[in-house]
Write a structure and sequence with these properties.
By secondary structure, the chain is an alpha+beta fold. The chain has helices at 16-29, 49-58, 60-69, 78-115, 117-122, 171-174, 183-187, 189-192, 199-208, 223-233, 264-273, 283-286, 296-306, 342-347, 351-360, 365-372, 398-405, 415-426, 462-478, 536-551, and strands at 136-137, 141-143, 148-154, 160-163, 212-213, 216-219, 238-243, 250-256, 316-318, 321-324, 327-330, 338-340, 430-432, 437-441, 447-450, 455-458, 491-501, 507-517, 525-530. The chain folds into three domains: 2-94, no CATH class; 134-220, Penicillin-binding protein 2a (Domain 2) (Alpha-Beta Complex), CATH 3.90.1310; 225-267 and 277-551, Beta-lactamase (3-Layer(aba) Sandwich), CATH 3.40.710. Bound molecules: zinc ion (ZN).
Length: 554
């Protein structure tokens, strides 16, 4: 009967003898069926029970197969077979259970990889990183259009080289990652050395003994504007910042003197030794300068707040100088501006008029405005920057009040900060947080995290912003920034000629311009400082014009 039982017909057409052997064995041991498909006969009869148990375990799966189909109720050893059958059924169930579990797990991982990868990558609780710098190739820094600003290549021996295709042009803002680190290379080090490549490629890299590719940092910088700003500043020491007032995106950030980050290692000793020029300093974010007349934007705001309904009645007769005690304020080059309203005083950048405003503002009025605008505070940004300084108090002397009101005295500001002040005016009174990193992407292009425009604070009413904008427009149409009028775009701005003491005696004059274009719906803010270059009108304004021209395709 067993010979007729198809359950004993193994796939390789084993002989009847084999089957008998199986029968014999089974009969002798109860459930000791050996699925010895090789055809060995029942030498097993001579085995002890331990050996048999061992063989039973080895042939577990085959036994399951046999038991499942051995349903003949007339077989000898029936009770044992039933017990064995129950166990086999349980084993089948457990096996199927694990197979189903495995399938579900596979489907789930597939689902996460394909559909939920972005969500997982950007989840702050996700610590799935390839780990330390030892097994990650430093990611690239790119602009939104894919222009590579920094990348790492590997030669056949596994040596890594960090390259900066634009050499000096992005030197300070991108920074460097050898001999210490600076700029975005320092600020974004964690992201550049983290990897969110797919699980599969991480496993593959591990199997191949290769490093995984780090994440890429996508910046807000505009390569074309950056180059224009770089060449426009020419050989002057100084800085340029270009930003979008309504988003806070930094489009260009230049600092000079500069260096080539490709040769930072070989040039390091020279760069560090040259302490007088501060070549490694990013002047845009860390350079502290007297704001000069650009500060009159804030002095004007303080005045507007004390005279909200009668500022149009402002009247001043400029004789070219104003003295209190031993301090004398003069208008630039001894100019006498004569009778002025507030608009005229602003567009002429009349020092005596603003010195008089400074004398008459209530205690702490100018300080409150300055501190609202983040003087003496850390700027609300991830961009590492120096803290601007404002020292005037209600106990300050008249001389200090006058000099501070015209942007001299002890006040110091970074170009980035002045760009933020100007952006606040351009943006109807709302200061946005400036940022350089648009998003982090895995090397496969998946978004890991994204920065969105973020409001720092509403610092002025729309009316205040509008009034100061009108004064800044007058500065362009008939004041100190006239070189910007008549272009195919509108500009509102303020110049500055900031005097400062020079080491070793004498005074120098930094050339400032801060302004924005397309006044009704501002596009970009440009802040320029050229050290010891003279008046804002002569140098900073033409530099800004090149940038506006480039932006509008001129
Ligand atoms: Zn004047």
């Amino acid at each position: 009967m067993r010979q007729n039982d198809p359950g004993y017909q193994n796939p390789d057409n084993h002989t009847e003898t084999d089957t008998e052997g199986l029968n014999q064995n089974k009969q002798g041991t109860g459930d000791g069926i050996q699925t010895d498909w090789s055809g060995k006969r029942a030498e097993e009869s001579g085995e002890n029970s331990v050996q048999k148990d061992s063989r039973r375990r080895r042939s577990l799966l085959s036994r399951v197969h046999i038991r499942k189909i051995d349903l003949n109720p007339q077989s000898p050893g029936e009770e044992e077979e039933e017990a064995g059958g129950r166990r086999n059924t349980e084993l089948v169930a457990v096996t199927y259970f694990f197979i189903v579990l495995l399938l579900l797990l596979t489907v789930w991982i597939g689902y996460l990889e394909i559909f939920k990868r972005d969500d997982l990558n950007s989840n702050i609780n996700n610590t799935k990183k390839a780990g330390t710098s030892g097994n990650v190739i430093r990611g690239s820094i790119l602009t939104g259009d894919g222009t590579v600003l920094a990348s790492t290549s590997i030669d056949g021996d596994g040596n890594e080289t960090r390259s900066y295709p634009y050499s000096n042009i992005f030197a300070h803002v991108i920074g460097y990652a050898s001999n210490g680190s600076a700029g975005l290379e320092a600020e974004e080090n964690y992201d550049l050395m983290s990897s969110h490549t797919s699980l599969l490629s991480q496993i593959q890299s591990k199997d191949d003994g290769k490093k995984v590719q780090g994440d890429n940092v996508i910046v807000t910088l505009n390569p074309s504007l950056q180059q224009t700003a770089y060449y426009a500043l020419g050989s002057y020491k100084g800085a340029v910042v270009v930003m979008e007032p309504d988003s806070g995106k930094i489009l260009a950030m230049v600092s000079k003197p500069d260096f080539d980050p490709n040769t930072i290692s070989t040039q390091w000793e020279n760069l560090v030794a040259d302490s007088s020029s501060g070549v490694l300093l990013n002047r845009a974010t860390q350079g502290l300068y007297p704001p000069g007349s650009t500060f009159k934007m804030l002095t004007t705001l303080a005045y507007l707040r004390e005279h909200p309904s009668d500022y149009t009645q402002f009247s001043w007769d400029c004789t070219g100088s104003l003295s209190r005690g031993d301090v004398t304020i003069t208008c630039y080059h001894g100019e006498q501006h004569g009778q002025e309203d507030l608009t005229a005083a602003f567009r002429n950048s009349c020092n005596t008029a603003f010195a008089d405003i400074g004398l008459n503002l209530k205690d702490n009025a100018l300080r409150n405005v300055a501190e609202d605008f983040l003087f003496n505070s850390k700027l609300p940004t991830d961009i590492q920057s120096s803290q601007s300084v404002f020292k005037l108090t209600k106990n300050s002397s008249d001389g200090e009040k006058m000099t501070t009101a015209i942007g001299q005295g002890d006040t110091l500001v970074t170009p980035l900060h002045m760009a933020m002040v100007t952006s606040t005016i351009a943006n109807g009174g709302i200061m946005m947080r400036p940022y350089l990193v648009d998003q982090i992407k895995s090397s496969e292009g998946d978004t890991v995290s994204k920065n969105n425009p973020s409001i720092y604070k509403k610092l002025m009413t729309p009316d205040e912003a509008q009034t100061i904008t009108q004064f800044m427009e007058a500065t362009v149409t008939s004041g100190t920034a006239q070189a910007l009028s008549g272009a195919g775009y509108s500009v509102a701005g303020k110049t500055g000629s900031a005097e400062h003491d020079i080491d070793g005696g004498g005074t120098g004059t930094h050339s400032w311009f801060c302004g924005f274009s397309n006044v009704d719906d501002p596009d970009i803010v440009v802040a320029v400082i050229a050290e010891d270059a003279g008046t804002g009108s002569a140098v900073a304004v033409p530099i800004a014009k090149q940038i506006f021209d480039a932006y509008y395709g001129g």
